[in-house]
Design brief:
By secondary structure, the chain is α/β, with parallel strands linked by helices. Helix content is 47%, strand content 16%. Strands 3-2-1-4-5-6-7 form a 7-stranded parallel beta sheet, sandwiched between helices. Helix 4 runs parallel beside helix 6.
Length: 237
């Protein structure tokens, strides 16, 4: 069955892989992005809408555009996020709160908007994209780790609030994934990350997208409030 899917931050990395995977499965897919949509999205017939998840008004505008062109959002993948890395003693208030606002409060804003239609339809899927950093912490990423840990509490609270309306809410926690950001690191640093993973390699964005596609499917209708690691066994807890 074709569903309306929204992927926030869908112009690269895990978000792009998700958008392409859902489109390939025949769903009607929209992504939010703050820049120009990549050619892969255009070629796949994916709708790109401008949106800043730190602004509730632009979130409402983006949803209105998607609803007009595709229909109400039935599957939401909250993936948009930023980093402002730095050691705590050098991290400004703005660097901390900006990351929390984009990564955590931004996910809250889009979930709050999406769930209106899901409750009315009595069906919905929300998947929040967290990170292994939110489970184990990371030097130089106190802001990012805090935002990603917060998604677990947010997701489980939403799961309890909306379960009676057949809306499931789950969290995916990727480990080291070979995205543009990781690919920009020196080869020896990439090798060190891979060596720390029990499976002995970096993950692919498509592998995270496959886990998300499962959680969005009818096969996962009895799964809610879960945190699914996609990290090659790096965090076993």
């Amino acid at each position: 069955m074709s569903r309306v899917v929204l992927v926030t931050g869908g112009n690269r990395g895990i978000g792009l892989a998700c958008a392409l995977a859902f489109a390939a499965d025949g769903h009607r897919v929209a992504v939010t992005c703050r820049g120009e949509a990549p050619a892969e999205l255009v070629d796949a017939g994916i709708l790109a809408v401008p949106c800043d998840v730190t602004d509730s008004a632009t979130v409402d505008t983006a949803f209105a555009s998607i609803e007009e062109k595709l229909g109400p959002v039935e599957i939401l993948i909250a993936n948009a996020g930023i980093t402002r890395d730095g050691l705590v003693l050098r991290m400004s208030d703005g660097d901390f709160t900006d990351v929390i606002d984009a990564n955590l409060t931004g996910a809250f804003r889009v979930a709050r908007r999406a769930v209106r239609g899901m409750m009315k339809a009595r069906w919905g899927r929300i998947i929040l994209v967290s990170s292994i950093a939110g489970r184990v912490g990371q030097t130089g990423q106190a802001n990012y780790a805090a935002s990603k840990a917060g998604l677990v509490g947010l997701g489980r609270s939403l799961a309890k609030e909306f379960a009676s309306r057949n809306v499931t809410v789950n969290v995916v926690a990727p480990g080291p994934i070979l995205t543009d950001m990781l690919a920009a690191l020196p080869d020896d640093q990439q090798a060190a990350y891979a060596e720390a993973v029990p499976l002995g390699r970096l993950g692919q964005a498509e592998e995270v997208a496959a886990a998300i596609a499962f959680l969005a499917s009818d096969a996962a209708s009895y799964v809610t409030g879960a945190v699914l690691p996609v990290d090659g066994g790096l965090f076993m807890g």
